[in-house]
Amino acid sequence: MRLDTEKYAYSVEFMCGRLGVSRSGYYDWRSRPESATAQRREELKLLIEKAFDMSDSTYGHRRIQAQLHRWGVAAGVELVRRIMRKLGLVPCLPRPKRFNLTQAAAGQVPDLVGRDFTADAPGENSSVTLPISRPGRLAVPGNGHRLLHEGSHRLRNGRPLPNPTYIQSDPKRGTK
Fold this sequence. Notes:
By secondary structure, the chain is of the alpha+beta class. It is 32% helix and 10% strand. A 3-stranded antiparallel β-sheet has the order 3-4-5, with no helix packed on it.
């Protein structure tokens, strides 16, 4: 930290006295040239800003580091990340890709199965088919207990279940 009298409320003599440093030592340190590391970081700052601007502010620290590598400049990913953070370079995040898995059909979609799923009253539709896991048991997806009411679900042949049935789904061993 360089102590300039214009920036700080305290004088150089006061600050050096508190820090236990001689004034001549402070002025000697202040007149030294920048270290090789500081010079290299200044050069990297310029290159990082150039690469960031060339990418239209989209590259993050990994891509910037790869670009520097292509230019023949050796710099680690963490060093690039620290310099970008110090410079306030934040890449813009791309919009999330939205995949449309279905395409709108032109006109009416034909009913290839030909089933009628409308019912006059609850439990009257007999076209619902449930898979049978074991004789007398229905395979109901999901966990927990479900009560199947008499007449609300029918077997393939249209006959109702004989009485209300509890079905327990066990995720480890399949449906019980």
